[in-house]
Amino acid sequence: MSSASSTNTPPAGTSDQAPLSVAQLTGRLKGLVEESFPDVWVAGEVSNFSRPQSGHCYFTLKDDQAQIRAVMWRGSASRLDFKLTDGLELVCHGRLDVYAPRGSYQLVVDRAHPQGVGALELALRQLREKLAREGLFDPERKQPLPKFPRRIGFVTSPTGAAIRDFLEVLRRRWAGVDVLVIPVRVQGDGAADEIAAGIKAAARIEPALDVLVVGRGGGSLEDLWAFNEEPVVRAVAACPIPTVSAVGHEIDVSLSDLAADVRALTPSEAAERVVPAADEMAGQIARLGDRLHGTVRRMIQFAAQRVESLAARRVLAHPHASIEDRARRVDELDARGQRAMRNLLGERNHRVAALAGKLESLSPLGVLGRGYSVTQDARTGQVIRAATELKVGQELRTRLAEGDVVSEVKRIEK
């Protein structure tokens, strides 16, 4: 029929070519794009950054007019010297890739570095902020250096100028110090691991070190970078030995400087920090000796004046006088005591005599002396006061002023 048409017949006005499937079209685009852009540099601002547990980094690179999705696989991301964040201006190297399931393309980044700020400066800033938050640079963690160390360790290159400068200043300032050099590489690949291992080895040395110096001479940021790497900074902060960081020159401040107990601007200054100057100590000892001599002299003068003052006292000038005074005082007290005893005895004798007179006047014997007598039962001694107490034949004893009379009752008269 005229109204019927085959489903395979192209619509009017189209090409005789058969249509492509979405997968076919996407595949052709994928091949075209990936073959055309196998190696490309792209600059833009990072946005929508995310990093799931897989470790892969997903973000968008954008400018004022366009944007492109980007991915950096975990292996490439782990080699970055800085941390990816939103708002960071990047220059990325990679290749274009078409992601068929979504029909979108993306930049697969294998290398990147910040624009404006170098990667090393950015990595340094980010690591410094991270370690500062952990408290590795806190002043409360710092240990004081010993005044007179006997054993000093130095983690450095044994052929560098740092150890020569250090030893030269050390010999000039103070003798009798043992220096143990722990040889490591101070720059290049693997230097940070060697420095960290050297610091840890220094903590195990017996007899124990009194001070540990970690350092090298000056150089560029790249030359000094090993002393900014996290393993070295953590080893310095964890070292139980008081540690001096002597990395670079005055204008160079490494993270090891911040983590160490003491920062020295140069290895030469490190020697000045860890040992005193012999001539300064000699002068200080001389000044202390003068102060001690003056103090002792003043103490002796004060003691002499004190002795003279005590010697002038009567008790020391005439020691027997005090004894004689006390002897006289004892004699006076003895005389007073004897007089008091005599007076007391006399007074007591008068009182006794008066009491005796009173007793005598009240005594029955006194009554007998005036012609009276006392009659008693001869057997019992009971005093007879009335005739009714007597019986005929009872034996009585009559007491007179002189002598007694024994009688027998013959008759009782009432």
Please explain how this structure is put together.
With 414 residues, this protein is an alpha/beta fold. Among the domains are: 22-116, Nucleic acid-binding proteins (OB fold (Dihydrolipoamide Acetyltransferase, E2P)); 138-276, Succinyl-CoA synthetase domains (Rossmann fold, 3-Layer(aba) Sandwich); 367-408, no CATH class. 41% of the residues lie in helices and 20% in strands. It is built from twelve helices and 13 strands. It has helices spanning 22-36, 74-77, 119-133, 161-173, 191-202, 230-238, 255-259, 267-274, 278-311, 314-317, 319-362, 364-369, and strands at residues 40-50, 57-62, 67-72, 89-99, 104-114, 151-156, 178-183, 211-216, 243-247, 262-263, 374-377, 395-399, 404-408. It has a five-stranded mixed beta barrel. Strands 7-6-8-9-10 form a five-stranded parallel beta sheet, with helices on both faces. Helix 4 packs parallel to helix 8 and helix 5 runs parallel beside helix 6. The longest helix is centred in the last third of the chain and has 44 residues, at 319-362. The chain starts with 21 loop residues before the first helix and ends in a 6-residue tail after the last strand. It catalyses: Exonucleolytic cleavage in either 5'- to 3'- or 3'- to 5'-direction to yield nucleoside 5'-phosphates. Its EC number is 3.1.11.6. Its main location: cytoplasm. Belongs to the XseA family. This is Exodeoxyribonuclease 7 large subunit.
